[in-house]
Design brief:
Distance between the termini: 34 Å
Number of helices: 12
CATH superfamily of one domain: Aldolase class I
Radius of gyration: 19 Å
Strand order of the largest sheet: 1-9-8-6-5-4-3-2
Number of strands: 11
Length: about 350
């Protein structure tokens, strides 16, 4: 996958958990960008169906994003999870459901690798960790490029050494889950431009910049800083092709602040602040995916009820710049705006 050959230097973020749809990936690809399907939280069979639907909609290449194997459950974590589960009982009763089973699973990792080895998609990307070099080699054998999400230069070096073809450099501004290899609260959080520049001088791989990019000026900025393309997520959440829940759409049309929280999944993620985040954020243990499974029935019930106060309203810090328009129009508009921004900047530097 040659990023320099994309008509528009725009990558669709995978957007796991609902917003990702075959129609969204197809629309982005048809407009000259590069679309992704999210395999996270889905069975291998459901991912297969998404791939087949996407291929029925377009012939353009696309990628599939996979959650890397989770870290082992932390020592002593069981007690913390049980205490959090007790807090969730009253919350679950509020919506007439029971808390979920706080299991520590691998999201069907091996089954999804087998599927992708058979489906031979253009790109397989990994989030939440670095795949083993043998996994990378297996995907290379079927002509799939491998991208890895990184948040700092040390992770970038590890991904390069594993054989990655490109890196998605995620800044602190990004919405949704942080892509840390190790979700350690002591880790330094880097803004996108800092992470991008530090990574660019450390590894010689194509870089995709992610985090807080919602307009063409943001695209131009990261291209000037060394990225081969910009990955956008919040910019696409209001499109008709996205599977964004109605309550989430309404929140994205507002102006609430974003915060990082473990409350919904046990892993730090950025979303629009709401009641659930404020009430439980200080109590949630660092236990992913256990907490995700624990809170999942509550969030599903709140979505059905249209209650934005108990769902994860993932959004990047610049989400207020997003517009409600077709995904293809977003891609083309951001590309045009980026070209204008680059021309204006070039004139200023003459």
């Amino acid at each position: 996958m040659d990023l320099d050959q994309l008509p528009e230097p725009i990558i669709q973020a995978p957007l796991a958990g609902g917003p990702s749809t075959p129609k969204l990936a197809a629309a982005v690809g048809e407009a000259g960008g590069f679309g992704f399907l999210a395999a996270g939280y889905k069975t291998a069979g459901a991912v297969r169906e998404d791939i087949r639907e996407l291929r029925s909609l377009t012939d353009v290449p696309f990628g599939v994003n996979v959650f890397a194997l989770p870290a082992p459950a932390p020592p002593g974590g069981k007690d913390a999870i049980e205490r959090y589960a007790e807090r969730m009982r009253a919350e679950a009763a509020r919506y007439g459901v029971e808390p979920g089973d706080a299991r520590h699973d691998d999201d069907g990792y091996e089954e999804k690798l087998d599927l992708l080895a058979n489906e031979r998609v253009a790109v397989v990307s990994f989030t939440f960790g670095c795949p083993d070099p043998a996994v990378v080699e297996r995907l290379h054998e079927v002509k799939s490029d491998v991208w890895v999400t990184v948040t700092n230069p040390a992770e970038a070096v590890q991904a390069r050494d594993a054989g990655a073809d490109a890196l998605v450099v995620q800044g602190f501004e990004a919405g949704g889950h942080r892509g840390y290899f190790e979700d350690d609260a002591r880790a330094e959080d880097l803004g996108l431009l800092v992470a991008l520049r530090l990574t660019a001088v450390e590894v010689d791989l194509p870089l995709v910049a992610a985090g807080g990019i919602v307009d063409g000026a943001g695209v131009a900025a990261v291209l000037c800083a060394g990225a081969a393309a910009a990955q956008i997520g919040s910019a696409l959440m209001l499109t008709p092709e996205a599977g964004t829940a109605p309550a989430h759409r309404q929140a994205l049309s507002g102006a609430g602040p974003t915060r990082l929280t473990r409350a919904f999944s046990g892993r730090r993620a950025r979303g629009i602040a709401n009641r659930f985040m404020a009430k439980y954020g200080d109590h949630a243990p660092a236990a992913y995916p256990d907490v995700h499974h624990l809170t999942s029935p509550i969030r599903a019930a709140a979505r059905r009820a249209g209650d934005a106060d108990a769902i994860n309203l993932w959004a990047g810090q610049a989400y207020r710049l997003a517009r409600e328009e077709p995904a293809g129009d977003v891609v083309r508009r951001l590309g045009a705006e980026a070209r204008t921004a680059v021309r204006d900047t070039a004139r200023r530097l003459q």
